[in-house]
Amino acid sequence: MTEPVTLQDTQAAYDSVASLYAELFSDVLDTLPMERALLAVFADLVRAHGAGPVADIGCGPGHVTAHLHALGLTAFGVDLSAAMVALARQAHPALRFHEGSMTALDLADGVLGGILAFYSIIHMPPRHLPAVFAEFHRVLAPGGHLLLGFFAGDDPLPREFDHKVSLAYRWSPDSLVELLREAGFDEVARLRREPHEGERFHQAALMVRKAGRL
Ligand SMILES: C[S@@+](CC[C@H](N)C(=O)[O-])C[C@H]1O[C@@H](n2cnc3c(N)ncnc32)[C@H](O)[C@@H]1O
Hints:
Blueprint: H1 7-25, H2 33-48, E1 54-57, H3 63-70, E2 75-79, H4 82-91, E3 96-99, E4 112-118, H5 129-139, E5 140-151, E6 159-161, E7 168-170, H6 173-182, E8 185-193, E9 203-210
Parallel strand pairs: 1-2, 1-4, 2-3, 4-5
Antiparallel strand pairs: 5-9, 6-7, 8-9
Helix pairs in contact: 1-4
The structure holds S-adenosylmethionine.
């Protein structure tokens, strides 16, 4: 197995491709009707449980943060890559973006109504993911929703693959749900869809909720 990359490696890798990534993906939601539908449901559920701000963690150039804002949420973005944060601020000057890592969020306990982590946990070495889910649980209010996007695999163990930017992992939805349960989340919904042209793997999303009520 390849040695897992460090946060610094991931940050440097995304800093170096940030402009190209923004060029390629800033309009990608236009081509993803199922993901748009799921984001709309996520927004409805966050509102139904008392709103509260939503953090788009691993926001990249901020296009999904802006989509959440357009859905009526108070959304802000967090990303490891300074270059991504700079591009997000430039493209969406009315929204807040800041540098930070999902491993140690600069947020108080229970302040968020929702968290979106769209294709950003994919680079986290699997042994660190329980701590990341504990961190998500800490900053979410009771009843808060977490929506994860990731590449799906069938193997119960996470499988690394040669992602174009930095080493990444595919997960079986069942295995991720198990880790999320251990962190205190209940499953709400899951999506697994066929790859579109140009995509290598099945794409998946999981929506879970922190137990309890506001
Ligand atoms: C594949 S991109 C996804 C960007 C955006 N969410 C999207 O759906 O297009 C992964 C993003 O996660 C960020 N990222 C990776 N590890 C992170 C971490 N530990 N904390 C915060 N952001 C991270 C990267 O810098 C990159 O911008």
